[in-house]
Amino acid sequence: MAMGISKRGQGKVKGRGRLLVTVTVYGSAGPLRFLVNEGEMASGVVRLALKTYAREGRLPLLGTHLDEFLLYHANGGFDALESGYVISFNGARNFLLCKKQIEEVIEEKVEEKAIAGSVIASKKGYSSSWKSGLNKGLNKILSFRI
After folding, report:
1. Model pLDDT for residues 65-84, shown as the tens digit of each residue
2. Looking at residues 54-66, what average pLDDT do you find?
3. What residue stretch is flagged as signal peptide (predicted)?
4. Residue of 29, 47, 50 lying closest to 37 (CA atoms)
5. Element spanning 26, H or E
6. Among candidates 64, 65, 55, 53, which has minimal Cα distance to 29?
7. What pTM was estimated for this model as a whole?
8. What does the alpha-carbon distance between residue 142 and residue 44 come to, in Å, rounded to a whole number?
9. In whole angstroms, what is the distance from residue 70 CA to residue 100 CA?
10. For the residues of 32-99, what is the DSSP string, one character each?
């Protein structure tokens, strides 16, 4: 070994290279930069990004569930990467991390609003159906004109 350079310092660990990956978290102030092993899957990149994000104490708080996030190529494409996508020297190293809109949460909120709306309508003496409420209102208007 000449001049104290070791094999470990040359960027190779157990025959694999390490890549500097940049992940921009949607809604965050700046990108995250960290090293991953070549051959790491997209799910591993998401896991490392969430750990790094939390370790740095960034806001807004994201959580730790990998299923709630989508990873995209930063330079193109509208399709999220599959969790089995492999990071390599030939591929992209810049990514965008977004939180999913979970349909179940949205459906629950819609149901809560519908229930609240029907409670308010029943307190006012209206039917919970918007069609019957519209018909009653139109009947009142027409009865005044006759």
Report:
1. 888 899 999 887 788 899 89
2. 86
3. none
4. 47
5. none
6. 53
7. 0.59
8. 66
9. 6
10. EEEEEETT-BHHHHHHHHHHHHHHTT-SS---S-GGGEEEEETTS-SSPPPTTPBP-TTS--EEEEEE
Per-residue pLDDT band at 32 (split at 50, 70, 90): very high
Per-residue pLDDT tens digits for 16-30 = 789 999 999 988 889
Question: What single-letter DSSP state applies at residue 116?
Answer: H
Q: Residues 42-78, buried b or exposed e (16+ Cβ, 10 A)? A: bbbbbebbbeebeeeebeeebeeeeebbbbbbbeeee
Q: Which residues are registered as beta bridge partners of 35?
A: 20
Q: What is the pLDDT of residues 107-135, one digit of tens each?
A: 666 666 666 665 555 555 554 577 777 77
Q: Report the half-sphere exposure of 76 (CA within 13 A, side-chain side).
A: 2
